[in-house]
Amino acid sequence: MLTHTVFITGGTGYIGSRLIDALLADGHTVRALARR
């Protein structure tokens, strides 16, 4: 399986948090950006 490092903006929002959960479950590395 090919894994990637993924950069997410808005990672604390509804869609961003669900997307992060899904990417982590698939084995990807996630970096997230938040305003605060």
Report on the structure:
The protein has 36 residues and is an alpha+beta fold. The chain has one domain. It has 1 helix and 2 strands, in the order βαβ. The protein is flat, with a radius of gyration of 10 Å. 0% of the residues are buried.
Q: What sort of overall outline do the alpha carbons produce when their principal axes are compared?
A: flat
CA-CA gap between termini: 34 Å
Write down the overall mean pLDDT.
94
Q: What are the secondary-structure elements, in order, as H or E?
A: EHE
Query: Which value, in Å, is the CA radius of gyration?
Result: 10 Å
What is the share of helical residues?
Answer: 25-40%
- Strand order of the biggest β-sheet: 1-2
Kindly state the number of beta strands. 2
**What is the overall number of helices?**
1
In the predicted model, the low-confidence regions spanning at least 5 consecutive residues are none
Q: Output the structural class.
A: alpha+beta
What's the main sheet like? 2 strands, parallel
> What portion of residues belong to β-strands?
25-35%
State the domain count.
1
